[in-house]
Amino acid sequence: MQLVRRYRLPALFCALAVLLCDLVSRPYANMGICDDGPYILMAQHLARTGHIAYNGWSAAMMGWQLYLGAAFIRLFGFSFTAVRMSTLLVALLTAWLLQRTLVLAGVNERNAVLGTLAFVLSPLYLMLSVTYMSDIDGLLAVVACLYGCLRALQARKDRAAIFWLGFAVATNAVFGTARQIAWLGILVMLPSALYLLRKRWRVLPAGAAVTLAGALSIFACMQWFSRQPYIQPEHLIPNDFPVLKMLAELGSTFLEMPFLLLPVAAIFLPQMRRCGPRVRWASLALLLGYLWIARHPRPLHHVSFLEPTNGDWVSIFGIHSLLGLQGDTPVYLHPAMRMVLTAVSFGGLFGVVATGFCRHSDRADAGPEPPVSWRQLGVLLTPFVLVYWLLLIPRSTIWLFDRYLLPLLVVALLCLVRLYQERVRGRIPLPGALLVAGMAIYAVAVTGNMFSFYRARTVLAAELRARDIPDTSVDNGWEYNFNVEIQQADHLNDKRVVIPADAYLPVPKPPAGSCAMYLYDETPHIHPLYGVSFDPGACYGPAPFAPVHFSRWPYRTPGTLYVVRYVPAAELPPGMP
């Protein structure tokens, strides 16, 4: 036990579990995944020149993440995979710190391990851990800030409390440069912690001073960022407020949370027996009614209310869903499985409500008084959660992504695991551990499938280049196209860029009835004659290139990508097939 305490072996086990699961998924592909392609090229430019240069596809500051990626390039040479491994390193540190944070919040070691694994071995976390997206780096800023605040609340000596407040401010200020919304740690969570420490007259002024210093550093960073060329400024107040769409986006995003924490939510299912038969039958009727409504067409057809409800990373396709390829993406999670997952997720949510509000008796094996009370947790975390949700409202006028939920999922995880430990059982039972293992297997499968899919696209690109067809004549999806455009013009042609004033050049719309290239105006140097498609009959039919398969484990039949013509064969330049 002394060895465990000294080296924090449970936390280390959580970090190593992430490393093992991600490496098993074979996370390599020589192209951009979602937004990370332009970010990787920024890290390459920083490693080569020593300067940060944005390229038209960044509303996130990136900040310290770029320097870490550039360091990996200096150490291992440039490749998309080498840069992405810097995020994996951050994901390991976040997993380690999250387990320690749960322990500080009053969760015992065993439950903290299972709770942490339920989060870090989820498909959302595993997939993002091996990309160069800024979500994991921003999450580290939030978790480190929460850890520092909890240590400050529990510190017996004023000097230690001041040190941990300084730790929370410093880590949040630095790591938050990767994703600005993480600065809510300094702006909201630190003032909440200071309120809880208001009676310690030596701690309060020192803590207020370091918090103010953190806020000033945020202001300075934002002033610098706002003056950089080729960034996309974010606006807190959108021009249009489509109320129905906003409610649908916010609602489906909220309903996805129990699915993303399925192993923790599902262990609350048996708690429905706490309630009377009327409540149980009413809950069952509500669930069946929801499933029936969710299976029928809706005006907002792009918003799904079956799990996963609104995912772009954890999606029904098993791969990142914003593809921009021709043809229909093959479905990975069929409706029957989605209904089962929805029933389990919502059943767990009903069980959580039953645990809190239906009759219960105190556990006989209740442990010692937790180091942090529920009231203290509420004061510390509730303002953070409310402000975070408020900042999601402007985004909901367009769309919300499941990756935006990561900080909120940490708060939900902490509360759920501690609630179970105090109100139900002192130890998460074996079925909970089995659910964690099951979700980890699913996460490894979809992460491996996603990278297999992206590798297939690079194989098709190489096949076309071998036939003397340049990348500028191929639509290989917006992620691949972005890297091609940046190599041609150094920046993307995005109308949201305001510095320099003439950065955006209007691009005429493609002729009606032609094959539409997704985000065509961002990549004006690409004039596709060919495109990658899930359907060999799309556009003007198949081109004479061999199709490429990609994994869809556990299905025996793999996915297949084809090359199709974007113009009639008679209009192709001489010598092109």
Layout: helices, strands, pairs:
Blueprint: H1 2-7, H2 9-24, H3 36-49, H4 64-76, H5 80-104, H6 109-120, H7 123-129, H8 135-154, H9 158-175, H10 184-196, H11 203-226, H12 243-260, H13 262-266, H14 277-294, H15 335-357, H16 374-396, H17 406-423, H18 430-466, E1 474-475, H19 478-489, E2 530-533, E3 548-550, E4 559-565
Parallel strand pairs: 1-2
Antiparallel strand pairs: 2-4, 3-4
Helix pairs in contact: 2-5, 2-6, 3-4, 3-19, 4-5, 5-6, 5-8, 6-17, 7-18, 8-9, 8-10, 9-11, 10-11, 10-16, 12-16, 14-15
Describe this structure in words.
The chain has 19 helices and 4 strands. It starts with a helix and ends in a 12-residue tail after the last strand. Among the domains are: 2-237, no CATH class; 459-571, no CATH class. The mean pLDDT is 90. Helix 9 (158-175) packs parallel to helix 11 (203-226) and helix 10 packs antiparallel against helix 16 (374-396). The chain has a 4-stranded mixed sheet. The longest helix is centred in the C-terminal third of the chain and has 37 residues, at 430-466. The protein is mainly alpha-helical.
